[in-house]
Amino acid sequence: MLWSAHQYDKVWDEAYASCDDDAQGTFDRKLDFLQEHGSLSSRPVTAPLGGGVFELRVKDVRVLFYFGDKREIVFVHWIVKKTRNVSPEDIKLAKKKRTEIQSGAKKKNALPSQN
User: Fold this and answer.
1) CATH class of residue range 4-109
2) Which of 2, 5, 57, 58 is the most exposed place for a label (fewest CB within 10 A)?
3) pTM for this one?
4) Which residues of 35-47 are buried (b: 16+ CB within 10 A; e: fewer)?
5) Sheet holding 72-80, edge to edge
């Protein structure tokens, strides 16, 4: 059974649109892998950032996400990584957005391919 993928606002759409065709193809393959393997995914596709936040890695773009209930992957923040580590501020923002979704203050949206 595949994991479903969702996004905070248009996080995934914006990250995807920021990439060239080659990177978009890599995004597609890595998302397929992540949906198939879910929380068993690891480097080089994903990496844990702490506090239940993970990153999906494509070149210098990182899309931060968490694993939700009912086999859900929820993308909450994205960055163009310019340093070795994702900043603590970006991780904190991802956690804040996760809390907004989990508390019901913010609705998550299905990815376009999930509609």
Assistant:
1) alpha beta
2) 2
3) 0.93
4) beebeebeeebbe
5) 46-50, 53-58, 61-68, 72-80, 4-8, 108-110
